[in-house]
Amino acid sequence: MQENFKSGYVALVGRPNVGKSTLMNCLIGQKIAITSKRPQTTRNRIQTVYTDERGQIIFLDTPGIHKAENKLGDYMVRVAKKTLEDADLILWLVEPTTFIGKGEQEIARILSESKKEIILVINKIDSLKEEKDLVETIHTYQVVCDFAEIVPVSALRKKNTQELLKTLYAHLPEGPMYFDEDTVTDEPMRDIAAEVIREKALHALKDEVPHGIAVTIEKMHDREDKPICDVEATIICERDSHKGIIIGKKGTMLKKIGSNTRYELEQMLECQVNLKIWVKVRPKWRDDKNLMKSFGYDEKKYR
Ligand SMILES: Nc1nc2c(ncn2[C@@H]2O[C@H](COP(=O)(O)OP(=O)(O)O)[C@@H](O)[C@H]2O)c(=O)[nH]1
Ligand SMILES: [Mg+2]
Description:
Shape: globular
CATH superfamily of the largest domain: P-loop containing nucleotide triphosphate hydrolases
Bound molecules: guanosine-5'-diphosphate, magnesium ion
Order of helices and strands: EHEEHEHEHEHHEEHHEH
């Protein structure tokens, strides 16, 4: 190992939809966290590992900090806040705007209390028309917190992201290699599979349905005689009418979600995937702690 090997935990925080998960995937060079144009796509902390000759960075992707509307929302915000405690360095992601809303003000307050080094990342700079708009964003944000650095990037277009890595290494302490150098994530494959299904559902479904869905994996098994993985999963939704939408006319919607999921899982697992998905209704599960726990959102883990 190199002499001044750097390492540490870097939390990605910010409002929903600013591109935290997209940026993390971009930095590690692989898609682990699911993303979508809908807010509140990420519900749990997702840990990934980036290793090169300079060091090892453990990224902690978090749900967006927002005003919670149910127990699931409370849980998500708690996950994000708790993750700050475990981080050596905080990346606060924002969009390139010159208006700082209530949501951002609240995040600034939380981050200032954390007493940790904060790097402001202005994401989505590809959406800016002129250079001077970026300068204005920097001016607007500069005074909000005491930032160690301000780095503009585009996670989607992979612009300036290598610069960001350099900046991270400059601010991380010397430390050990926490994970094997081949490790990209320690998320269980079952959880990743459930997330892929949820992502495909988020992409395919109309507005009101996606927020109320959860996905569980009932079975995930490699066959012994053939390179086939059998997966059985359930999509949980909150209403009968939503169940109808998820299944679709003659099952077309569920078929679409299924085949998009299968395609991605087959790439990931490098084998054929035999996927079965059921749909179940659990009214108001997002306000039921026990149901939430059984769907993978256990608040005890983040007390
Ligand atoms: N134009 C643009 N869109 C982006 C960029 N990064 C992320 N997005 C989009 O923003 C949306 C939210 O991304 P996501 O990573 O799920 O946001 P998160 O909720 O903060 O994790 C998705 O539609 C992304 O494709 C970027 O650099 N430029
Ligand atoms: Mg996310």
